[in-house]
Amino acid sequence: MNKEKSETKTIKHLSSKDIGMSDPRARLKALSDQGSNVEMDRNIPPQRYYRSGVEMIRMADMYMKDNDLEHAYILYVKFITIFVEKIRDHPQFHMVPSKDKEQNQQTLRKIIPKAEELKKQLLEQYQADFEKYLEDAKEREKIEKEKLKQEELEKLREEEERKNKQAALAAVRAAKAAMSTVVTSPEESKLKKVPSIAQKPLISLSTDIAAQTSKEKRTPTIDRSTKPSVLMSDNLTLRDIVLPTKLMHNFLMVAFGNTMNNKETCGILAGKIERHKLVVTHLLIPEQTGSPDSCVTHNEEDIFDYQDQHNLITLGWIHTHPTQTAFLSSVDLHTHCAYQLMMAEAIAIVCAPKYDETGFFILTPEYGLDFIANCRESGFHPHPTKPPLYMEAKHCKMDVTAAIEVVDLRRK
C-alpha cells in the first residue's frame, strides 16, 4: 500500500508524455496497434500477401534470434491481422491455391501461441523498465530539490554579503565626513591626534567572487535524458538499409543491353538483418519484359524459391530509366507501394544512365503511402504533386567494402 502511494506521488512529477511512454500496458498496446494497423490494397493480388507472409515470419524469426522482441512481436501481430482478419475480404481471395491457404493455417497455429508468449515476456520487461524509471524519477526529483535548496542558500549568502558591504561603505563615508568637520588650532594639533575610526578592509569584487566560488559545494547536475533508451524510441524512425556501393554499377552492367535498346530493366534487392540494420546482399534479376517506360516480371516463383533456399528477405527493388531522369512514375509508385506496405524501410532505386543520376526513394509515410494504397487507377495516370507522394530515402547507407551477389534468373 505504501509503495503504491509512493509511486503515485512520483508519477505526479512525470509529464503526460513520459507516463504514456513508460506505462507497461500503454507501451504494449502501442506495439499491438502498430502491428494491427494494416490496410489491404485490393490492387495487390492476394498471392503477393501470402508470399509476403512467408518473409514476414522469416524476418520475425531473425529478430527473435537477435533478441529484438519488439520488432518480432510487431511482425507476428501483423501476420495474424492480415491472415485472420483481413485477407478473406480481398475480392480475389477465392483464387488463392488451397495449398497456400493450408500452409498459412499451419503457420498461424504456431504463430498465435508464440505471439501470446512473447506478449507476456514484453509485459514483464516493460514492467521492469517502468519500475526502474520510477526509481530514476525519484532520484532526479531528489537531486532537483537539493539543487533548489543550494540555490536558495546561495541567494541568502549573496544578500547577506551585499548588506555587509553596504554597511562597510556607509561606515567609511561617515568617518570621512567626521574628519572633514573637525577644526583644531595648530597648537592643539601638536598635542592631540584626531582619533581614527578602524576601517574594515574592503574586498575587491574579483577576490570576493573567487572566495565565493571556493566555498560553493559542487551540486550534482541533472541529466533529463536519463530515461531508458527504449522509452525514448521513435516508432517513425526507419532502420538503416546498407547498400554495397558497387550495386548500382553491377546492375547497370546487367541492364546494358536493354538500356541500349531503350528498354527498362528491373531487379529485386534481397538481404538480411544484422544488428538492427537491413543489409542488401543479393541482387536478383527475374524473368521480365521491358519497354521504354515500364518493366513486367514473370515467373516470380523463381525469386521466391531462391530466397527461401538462401533465407533472404526482400528489401526493395531497382530499375532503370533508359532515356529519362531518376524519378518515380505513377506506375512506379503503385509498384513500390506493395513493397513498402510490407516493410516500411523498403526502397526503390532508379538508375538514369543517360543523365548519370541515381535516385533512392520511398513513399512519404505520412501521406503518399496511404494515398497510393487507396488509389484505384491503373496504368500511367496523373497524381497530385502536393503534398509530395514520395521522398528521398535518407535511411540508405553506402558501404564501399560490402559485397553484392548478382543472381540472373532470366531464362536465356
Could you explain how this protein is built, in words?
- This protein is α/β, with parallel strands linked by helices and 412 residues long.
- It has two domains: 1-233, Phosphotransferase system, lactose/cellobiose-type IIA subunit (Methane Monooxygenase Hydroxylase, Chain G, domain 1), CATH 1.20.58.80; 241-408, Cytidine Deaminase, domain 2.
- Helix content is 51%, strand content 16%.
- It is built from 13 helices and eleven strands.
- The protein has helices spanning 2-11, 16-22, 24-36, 46-65, 69-86, 98-181, 186-191, 205-215, 247-254, 256-260, 301-310, 330-342, 368-373, and strands spanning 241-244, 266-274, 277-285, 287-291, 294-298, 313-320, 347-352, 357-363, 390-392, 396-399, 405-408.
- Strands 1, 2, 3, 6, 7, 8, 9, 10 and 11 form a nine-stranded mixed beta sheet that branches.
- A hairpin with a 2-residue loop joins strand 4 and strand 5 (294-298).
- Helix 3 crosses helix 5 (69-86), helix 3 crosses helix 6 (98-181) and helix 5 (69-86) crosses helix 6.
- The radius of gyration is 36 Å and the shape is elongated.
- The chain starts with a helix and ends with a strand.
- Residues 1-20 and 189-235 have low confidence and may be disordered.
